Amino acid sequence: MLQVHPAARILIAAQAPGRKVHDTGLPFNDASGDRLRQWMGIDRETFYDPTRIAILPMGFCFPGTGPAGDLPPRPECAKAWRAPLLAQLGRLRFSLVIGRYAQDYHLAEPANTSLTDRVKAWQGRQPAIVALPHPSPRNNLWLKRNPWFEQELLPVLRRRVAAALAEDVKT
What we know:
Blueprint: E1 10-14, H1 19-24, H2 31-40, H3 44-47, E2 53-57, E3 65-66, E4 69-70, H4 75-87, E5 94-98, H5 100-106, H6 115-120, E6 129-132, H7 140-145, H8 148-170
Parallel strand pairs: 1-2, 1-5, 5-6
Antiparallel strand pairs: 3-4
């Protein structure tokens, strides 16, 4: 459910695997992954190359289903292993922090900051972190209500991804 390699240039910090991903053992092996790869402007081969992209969820197992979607990842998981795994990623150029649970862990913003405000802060936040909504089809309404995301943020994100991966080829 994760991929970590010291040469990785981009970190995808996400929530926890959904049921389909849990069953296949491949992170973002679902409609969310298709959308995330489209947002990043990369193909599956690049996405699943651990020397280029690190994928480190907040939890390693499917946490179950609640009334409004998947349950949150178990908090003790990240406390136990996240810091040692992140310490192995010394060549990162930036991180994509996807969804509220990953954002609560990685961002210095108050926990009550809305997802929209966190994502909108992409221009003012340090360039090492880009907060994204979860690419799940459940967020289609959020995407429709926030056209600036696709019009303004995604072109910049694709350029940053391409630059980080091109740099990887040169080194």
